[in-house]
Write a structure and sequence with these properties.
mainly alpha; 135 residues; binds fe (ii) ion; 76% helix
């Protein structure tokens, strides 16, 4: 079972970015399977760590593309990225204190946040990158 299934409506039409977004959802799906399979806290924490690292890498790359494109709303975009990263850190800390704190609702929140982010503010920067041939 998957919590998220990729569809073209999530595509920003820049392959490298789509691939990274797919990678993020893949990790959320694997957190979901680990959770529903009743995996131990350290396994869940490991996958959350992986999600955090992958997210950081992807966000920094996206931000450097936006910087190169002189994207006018970069500061706001960075603040949104920071919020998501801090949420992952918070959920991982909660998981250390209470193994039952990581729930399907939290994973759904991460998934929905990403979907809204991609379909909203990520789509918004696409013309700026395309204009400078950045990907
Ligand atoms: Fe973004």
């Amino acid at each position: 079972m998957e919590l998220f299934k990729w569809s073209n409506r999530y595509s920003v039409c820049i392959d490298s970015i789509d691939e990274e977004h797919k990678g993020l959802f893949k990790l959320i799906n694997s957190l979901y399977s680990s959770l529903t399979e009743g995996q131990a806290q350290d396994i869940l924490s490991e996958v959350l760590d992986k999600l955090f690292e992958y997210t950081q890498k992807h966000f920094r790359r996206e931000e450097s593309l936006l910087r190169a494109a002189n994207y006018p709303y970069l500061a706001n975009h960075i603040a949104l990225h920071e919020y998501f990263e801090q949420s992952i850190v918070k959920y991982n800390q909660q998981l250390q204190d209470d193994p039952s704190s990581l729930t399907i609702e939290i994973l759904s929140f991460l998934r929905d946040w990403l979907i809204q982010h991609i379909q909203g503010v990520d789509m918004d920067y696409v013309p700026y990158l395309k204009d400078k041939n950045l990907s």
